[in-house]
Amino acid sequence: MFTVKGVKLSSIVGVAPAYTEDNLTNPIFNDSEDAEKYVKTVGVRYRRVTDKNTCTADLFVPAFNKQIELLNWDKSEVGILIVITQTPEYISPLQSIILQDRLGLEKTCLCLDVPLGCSGYIYGSFLISSLMQSHNIKKGILFTGDTLTKQASIKDRSTQPLFSDAATSTAFELDTTASDMFFDLGNDGSGFENIMVKDGGYRNRFSEESLKYVDKGEGVCLRGIDTIMIGMDVFSFAISTAPKTVNQLIIQYNLDFDSLDYFVFHQANMFLNEMIRKRLKLPVDKVPYSLYDYGNSASATIPITILDKIQNEIQEKPLKMIFSGFGVGLSWGAMYIETNNVVVAPIILV
């Protein structure tokens, strides 16, 4: 558990593809009844899908440019850039370093990549705020996002109808009047095989075999370059870890449960998220969802949900919130934050 003092969240801007695919007409389902059942249970109707030439980095650029405009920041003031993504343009060099030049940031800007997924917004917020606090970095940008549709097999019912593409930019700055942020972070590498892409690294190098589909049964047919998700194991992990971590955070920092305005969870799927909400005994109106229109976009889901569902509130009045992310790693985290007049914009569609 960690506490960060004197850093405020100043702005959130999100970008998503304008092109959508409708799960009600998705050929991966057996018929319309099958499709309707999926949408009702999992919660995803529309998936945002980039074209083959658009990478995650291409979504970060308009998000950053809009944010700098809204905040009236000079690019030279940005002292740190952290990029959370599992889908960079290249294996090497770092995506953040490539973006430093593309965005026109100073060569002295600290650049870091963190290849986390669904817990990434929590970890990224901790990393950037704690580094800013410790080293007097006045302004920083956190990018979170993925183009997960490129990793989902078109023949896999567990991932293809679920994953969506999106990217977000969150601006932080030093502010001695900012309320403390609290974090609870954890990992369990014994479950690393539950969500993974097996081929393309240096344990299993890319080969012709990586492009061959293998039928795993139960509607799952994958290539080595596709995301594997062991649904029941992931479900068991999330349903036990997320509520426990949120409760630990509340108890450790003596937070007033009733005064919390929102609990914003990673948008895993509706059935799982509702189980978490019910275990925590949270009222429906305090747990927003963006799954229906934006699907599961890994580290981008928490800020996308804020922009989709509580944009007006977060920019108009102070809010007390808990964020919770959980997934690939296995990795999880929760954070408490008090926001005040956050600068936001409608989600940019490109």
Mean pLDDT: 96
User: Helix proportion of residues, in percent?
Assistant: 25-40%
CATH architecture: 3-Layer(aba) Sandwich
Determine the number of helices (DSSP H or I, runs of at least 4 residues). Answer: 9
The best one-word shape is: globular
The total domain count is: 1
* H/E series: EEEHEHEHEHEEEEEEEHEHHHHEEEE
- Rg, alpha carbons: 19 Å
What is the CATH H-level superfamily?
Thiolase/Chalcone synthase
Which structural category do the helix and sheet elements fall into?
A: alpha/beta
Low-confidence stretches at least 5 residues in length (pLDDT < 50)? none
- Strand fraction: 25-35%
Provide an overview of this structure.
With 350 residues, the chain is an alpha/beta fold. The chain has a single domain (1-350), classed as Thiolase/Chalcone synthase (Peroxisomal Thiolase, Chain A, domain 1). 29% of the residues lie in helices and 27% in strands. Strands 2, 5, 6, 7, 8, 17 and 18 form a seven-stranded mixed β-sheet that branches. The protein has a five-stranded mixed β-sheet with strand order 1-9-16-15-14, sandwiched between helices. The protein has a two-stranded antiparallel ribbon with strand order 3-4. A hairpin with a 2-residue loop joins strand 11 (214-217) and strand 12. Helix 5 packs parallel to helix 6 (270-279). The two termini are 38 Å apart. The model has no long low-confidence stretch (mean pLDDT 96).
